[in-house]
Design goal:
Elements (H helix, E strand, L loop, with lengths): L1 H25 L3 E11 L4 E11 L4 E8 L2 E6 L4 E6 L6 E11 L4 E3 L3 E5 L3 H29 L19 E3 L6 E3 L6 E2 L2 E5 L6 E7 L1 H40 L1
Parallel strand pairs: 2-8
Antiparallel strand pairs: 1-2, 2-5, 3-4, 3-6, 6-7, 6-8, 9-10, 9-13, 11-12, 12-13
The structure holds zinc ion.
The site of zinc ion has 8 residues, from loops.
Length: about 250
């Protein structure tokens, strides 16, 4: 009993293999369709530029491509690909298939791919949401850093050591003050598009090393010192003058 069962299983297994090889030898064509440019929706709705690709037995010599009963092209050497534009054919349901011939003129048939050719405006319907998503992404990548930067440490004292975070830091090419760069921003190589929180000007700012940034912080102090001293001196002078004036009044 057991041996009989094993024999049956083996027989089934080998017959499957046999069927497979016979199938490959009689060589039916396998037809696939791919989208090159355009719209491919559900229920076989297509519009635009598509390719039919046929694979088959080794002795396949030429392939004729059909849309319904009309032959749309013939390819006489591999790869057996044919590009077509749905706009060149009437709208509606069609059957796409291929017929191949071997070197000895044996005929092979492919599977049939049903397709519904839809009008061109469907492409817009497909592209518009994609464009919308891209637009939103671009807006977010420019607006978010802008909003994140608004009102951030604008009154930082000169020369103060600051934190630069994950976005790194850069030195404003206009006012030469260092500041933290936004993490998400339009990138151009090592430079980032950012608005300086001190002078408010937009520029492409190079991402600098921390030592360069610390140098710039110190340079800030040195740049400001003469100006500040003059300012404080005049303040003092003013006070003195006022004091003097009040003394004279007494
Ligand atoms: Zn600046």
């Amino acid at each position: 009993m057991k041996i009989k069962r094993i024999a049956l299983i083996l027989l089934a297994f080998f017959s499957l293999l046999f069927v497979n090889t016979v199938f490959a030898q009689t060589g039916q064509l396998t037809l696939r369709m791919s989208r090159d440019w355009g719209y491919g929706g559900f229920n076989g709705d297509i519009e635009g530029l598509f390719s039919m690709r046929v694979t088959g037995p080794a002795d396949l010599a030429r392939v004729e491509f059909y849309i319904d009963s009309a032959k749309i092209g013939e390819v006489t050497q591999p790869p057996f690909n044919l590009q077509f534009n749905t706009d060149d054919y009437p709208l509606g349901n069609h059957q796409l298939y291929a017929v191949g011939y071997s070197t000895s003129e044996q005929e092979y048939h492919s599977n049939i791919i049903p397709a519904n050719f839809v009008p061109k405006q469907s492409t817009l319907k497909f592209i518009l949401p994609v464009l919308g998503v891209i637009l939103v992404a671009v807006l977010l990548s420019t607006l978010v850093p802008l909003l994140a930067q608004r009102g951030k440490h604008l009154n930082l004292p000169l020369g103060a050591e600051r934190k630069y975070g994950a976005g790194g830091g850069g030195i404003c090419p206009k006012c030469h003050r260092p500041f933290a760069l936004p993490l998400f921003s339009a990138n151009l190589g090592l430079s980032k598009l950012a608005s300086c929180p001190f002078c408010g000007k937009w520029s492409l700012v190079r991402v600098e090393s921390i030592s360069k940034l610390r140098e710039a912080e110190k340079a800030e102090l040195e740049q400001a010192k003469p100006g500040e001293q003059i300012a404080s001196e005049t303040e003092e002078e003013k006070l003195r003058r006022e004091l003097d004036a009040s003394k004279y009044k007494e």
